[in-house]
């Protein structure tokens, strides 16, 4: 039974399965080649931060739910998140090669927020594949919730009614305080994610992972954008050594820079 104390909070953490950051990207006619390459969770910092918030707040956080929108193999990253300390997971399963655009992701997350009723959504600021940095802002706008981007520090107040976020700006730090419910998008400097231990990986296999079909949450993943063409950048030319400032200036003039 859930305690009736007002400071018991629920956290929702969206995660994404993408090509692993260490993989050398190959560009094909339709975009980045994804078949036969290693995939992993795009950002583990939001999951780590959710677990740390519970460790600091002790009994103030009731449940951490992770959610991913993607093909069948996306369940792998959800199991990783569960092994890191999340309590349960939701997988909105898409077709194998289906591209889900940011607006569709935000709308699907809005539906899940309606059913799960979280007090705080913690998510990455942007994915490394589309690099759009749009979902957090779109979701906050749809819900009418306050939002703090690029968080480098996150603290919940003792009463569990507000969150304080520090974020890096040009020339310093900005500190924001928001009433819950709210949305926080994380920066890489927020934390150093833990590695899932073998015992926790085994325990994660027994934690609840709910499969949801897009139509169950009225999600429409039909593309609104059309990719016209994708080409790899031209290969870089090798540099040249110069022996003096005059040679540097001459080379720059030769290149048309000066």
From TrEMBL:
UniProt GO MF annotations: electron transfer activity
Main localisation: mitochondrion
SMART domains: ETF
Pfam families, per the entry: ETF
GO biological process, one term: amino acid catabolic process
Keywords from the named record: Electron transport, Mitochondrion, Transport
Assembly with partners or alone: Heterodimer of an alpha and a beta subunit.
Protein name: Probable electron transfer flavoprotein subunit beta
Organism: Rhodotorula paludigena
């Amino acid at each position: 039974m859930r305690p009736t104390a007002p400071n018991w909070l629920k956290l929702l953490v969206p995660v994404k399965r993408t090509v692993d950051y260490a993989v050398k990207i190959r560009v094909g006619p339709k975009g980045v080649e994804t078949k036969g390459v290693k995939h992993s969770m795009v950002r583990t910092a939001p999951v780590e931060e959710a677990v740390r918030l519970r460790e600091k707040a002790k009994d103030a956080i009731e449940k951490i739910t992770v959610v991913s929108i993607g093909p069948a193999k996306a369940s792998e990253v959800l199991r990783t998140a569960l092994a890191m300390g999340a309590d349960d997971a939701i997988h909105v399963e898409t077709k194998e090669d289906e591209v889900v655009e940011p607006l569709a992701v935000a709308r699907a997350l809005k539906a899940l927020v309606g059913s799960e009723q979280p007090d705080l959504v913690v998510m990455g600021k942007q994915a490394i594949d589309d690099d759009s940095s749009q979902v957090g802002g779109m979701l906050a706008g749809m819900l009418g919730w306050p939002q703090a981007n690029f968080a480098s520090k996150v603290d919940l107040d003792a009463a569990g009614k507000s969150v304080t976020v520090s974020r890096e700006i040009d020339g310093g730090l900005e500190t924001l305080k928001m009433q819950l419910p709210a949305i926080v998008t994380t920066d890489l400097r927020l934390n150093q994610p833990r590695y899932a231990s073998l015992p926790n990986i085994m325990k994660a296999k027994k934690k609840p992972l709910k499969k949801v079909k897009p139509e169950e949450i009225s999600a429409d993943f039909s593309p609104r954008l059309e990719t016209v063409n994708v080409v790899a950048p031209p290969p870089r030319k090798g540099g040249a050594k110069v022996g003096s400032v005059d040679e540097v200036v001459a080379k720059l003039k030769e290149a048309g820079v000066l």
